[in-house]
Amino acid sequence: MPIPDPAWPLTLFYDGDCPLCLREIHMFENRNHQQNLLLEDIAAKDTTPLPGLSREQMLDCLHARFADGRVVTGIDATYWSYHAVGLGWVIKPLGWRWARPFWQMAYRLFCRLRPGIARLVPMPGARCRDGQCDIAATNKKVIATEQQTKVD
User: Fold this and answer.
1) What is the pLDDT of residues 79-98, one digit of tens each?
2) In angstroms, rounded to a whole number, what is the distance separating the alpha carbons of residues 35 and 65?
3) Three-state DSSP class for 121?
4) Other CB atoms closer than 10 Å to residue 18's CB: what's the count?
5) Using one digit for the tens of pLDDT, what is the confidence trace for 88-146?
6) 132 forms bridges with which residues in the sheet?
7) Beta strand residue intervals within the chain, DSSP E
8) Is-contact 78 94, C-beta < 8 A?
9) Which pairing describes strands 127-129 and 132-134: parallel, antiparallel, or unpaired?
């Protein structure tokens, strides 16, 4: 977990087919003012998995890679992603060494349950094509609608 001098930016590989994941990615996009976090949809056909890993392995567990090539997975990928967007305080308990076994167990359980949980999370207004939902296009439409409403 401890990385003394993180080499930003951090590239987070996420599952673009997962509504639950997309909600978190949207939050990251809105908070990424320093551009410390790059986002790669591993479910997209044109995204190449990390060397030595299959797409399925990367979809089973969160992966992230620092600019210097260091790779973090699972709760560590979550921990550093939140730090990258200035929300380290939110996930500070993930850094507590004494609680690490609990967080790792909870993360493994979440990974097993994620597909079922994700089906329960609605993605209102998402535009999907080829199994991929374009959350950015949806947000632009919502913003444009809100701006038009203010003008009217």
Assistant:
1) 999 999 999 999 999 889 99
2) 14
3) coil
4) 21
5) 999 999 889 999 999 999 988 988 888 777 777 665 444 454 545 554 444 444 444 44
6) 129
7) 10-14, 37-41, 63-66, 71-73, 127-129, 132-134
8) yes
9) antiparallel
